[in-house]
Amino acid sequence: MRPLLATPEEIIKENTVLVERAIQYYKSKDWDNLNKTPVMIDQDGNVLSHFGDQTWDVTHYIDVKIVSKKRASFTHLTTISLLQEQKLLAFLGLFAVGTLRQGATIKTTTFLERNLNLTQVYKYIESIKADSICVLNHPIQFSRFCEYLKSLKMSGPYISKLIVALNWIQAVRKQTPIKLSLPLTTSITELGRQLGCPTKLESEQFYAIPSRLMQLIYSKAIEYIDTYYPIRDTLLAIQTEQQDNYEIGKAVVDRKIKTGQWNWLTSNSPHYKAEITKAKPQKPTDILQSYASNIEIKGLIPLKITEFDWLYSHILMCCFLVCGAFSGMRRSELYGLHSDSFKTLKLKEQTFYSLQSMHSKMTPAVPEKAEWLTSPIAGKAIELASALTQNMRIQLMLSDDRLDNERASSIWLVQKLKSRTPNIFTGPPFVKHYQRLVKEAGAIVNEQDYEEFKLLNPNLNIHAYKQKIIVGKPWALTTHQLRRTFAVFGKRYNLLSDVAIKQQYKHIYLPM
Questions:
Q1: How would you class 47 by CB atoms within 10 Å of its CB: exposed for 0-12, middle for 13-18, buried for 19 or more?
Q2: 371 in helix, strand or coil?
Q3: Is the separation of the CB atoms in 446 and 471 below 8 Å?
Q4: How does 255-271 read in b/e, with b if 16+ C-beta sit within 10 Å?
């Protein structure tokens, strides 16, 4: 089946028949047939996941350049009735009643987050040995559930999200066999505040960076771009030759295995990697040395392959940071940038620069093309990142895997292991490069920075920021801070009007 992600009418009709059949299987407890129901198919019609699978693979329904979560998991329950109930809710959320807005379609990220929130609820339901989430219909049981949530000492906003997920089940009860009716006596937001930990009642705010620290961090990132932009073709040549060197060695070993010359070795053998290394025509360090000797400024190219790979990713991170710092784009919008994203427009002898990407904050399930005004340095960053990832993008484009083809437009790619296809540069490895840049920039928080930080960031969750922003320690940099800093300083120095901020940020109101 195909989720309701802006699908044509014929697919909706096709899904309706299967939804009705699945509900009938559920009501009659025909688990065998229910478990055989397909829930995910790819573009070629191949079934990726069935109802009975422990995980549902939604990879083919997300933008792999942006979304890192690709599977809905159902491994947490052992009670069959509860497991099937949660799966049915997930199934109906995808194919029938995913959103309460008439005519709207559910986003895959919304589906995954809701399923994750319901997982927490179902763990509790199983712990009290109930056989349905409808046990919460009883005021006493709901009161005990609220006490359980309070004992978790989670934030008020997080608890509100759990209640919102339950509220969705209640709202669609006429279309599902699960007749949940919560005995709520107050609003969901207020209930979240009542049950949340007293030190976590407010959402943790993404911070604007104090001006001195901002200048240090941004200047260091720009310095990397200015330094390595002139030798971007050399960096690409090194990366390409390193990959070609690996491919040649691999081809030699694979040929010996295929012809039977090496019966003792297979591609799964622990010695396979070592034999490829021996078969490479050049040592990685020799390749580095041959290029480094031709660079006028000594020391720009490390002579150790691990250090070169780190530098390669570090430069890419600096390009990413600069694009975010000088546009105010969201993380998902930054990951949608491509090699042709930088645009120039001349109007009445004035030149405007912009970055083109996709945004989905105020759109239906399908993202829309949009532009953000920016600075010329962002164009330099885009060009440098495009050069660094050119060979990786070619590899992905030549792949037989459609998901690889989709990633091929991204300029934020890394390939630490030559045996694997390039992947999106994100997650903990990316954060480590942020931390390294902050230390290189000497962006250590002092008393003046701390006072300015409190001035720039009103409505702070004091218990949260005191654990992260510490005098004498490096600034804790995150991607969303780039967006907030751009807005705060634009407003602080009267560079942006309220209307301009809303337009630039694709936001309907200013408090972000």
A1: middle
A2: strand
A3: yes
A4: eebeeeebeebeeeeee
Residue 240 contacts residue 249 (beta carbons within 8 Å): no
Please name every residue paired with 168 in a beta bridge, in sequence order, or none if there are none.
none
d(CA 512, CA 507): 8
| Closest to 7 measured CA to CA, from 104, 111, 100 | 104
Measured distance between the N- and C-terminal CA atoms of the chain, rounded to whole angstroms: 37
Quick check: 372 and 486 in contact, CB under 8 A?
A: no
DSSP states of 66-107: T----EEE--S---HHHHHHHHHHHHHHHHT-S-SSTT----
User: Which stretch of 62-66, 267-271, 429-433, 442-446 has the lowest confidence by average pLDDT?
Assistant: 62-66
Relative orientation angle of helices 211-228 and 305-325, to the nearest 10 degrees:
120
The whole-number average pLDDT for the span 105-127 is 89
Q: Which amino acid is at 264?
A: W
pLDDT band of 147, cuts 50, 70, 90: very high
Distance of CA 293 to the CA centre of its chain: 39
Please report which helix (H) or strand (E) contains residue 318, including its range: helix 305-325
User: Hunting for tokens 């600069």 — which residue is that?
Assistant: 322
Across the chain, mean pLDDT equals 87
Mean predicted confidence (pLDDT) in 198-214: 76
Average pLDDT over residues 375-392: 97
Q: List the chain domain ranges.
A: 9-195, 211-431
- The single-letter code of the amino acid at 222 is I
- The gap from C-alpha 62 to its chain's centroid, in whole angstroms, comes to 11
pLDDT in tens, 286-297: 999 998 887 776
Torsion angle (degrees, nearest 10) of CA 445, 450, 456, 462: 110
Cβ distance 56 to 72 under 8 Å?
yes
Residue 210 DSSP code: P
Paired tokens of 316: 């890419």
Phi, psi of 67 (to 5 degrees): -95, 130
Q: 78 near 123, Cβ under 8 Å?
A: no
Cα 154 from Cα 195, distance rounded (Å): 8
- pLDDT over 80 at 496, yes or no: no
- Give yes or no for residue 500 having a pLDDT over 80: no
* pLDDT tens digits along 151-168: 988 888 889 999 999 999
Q: What angle do CA 51, 57, 62 make, to 5 degrees?
A: 130
- Within 10 angstroms of residue 75's Cβ, the number of other Cβ atoms is 9
Helix pair 284-292, 305-325: axis angle to 10 deg: 60
Q: Specify the 3-state DSSP secondary structure of 355.
A: strand
Question: Does this model's pTM top 0.85?
Answer: no
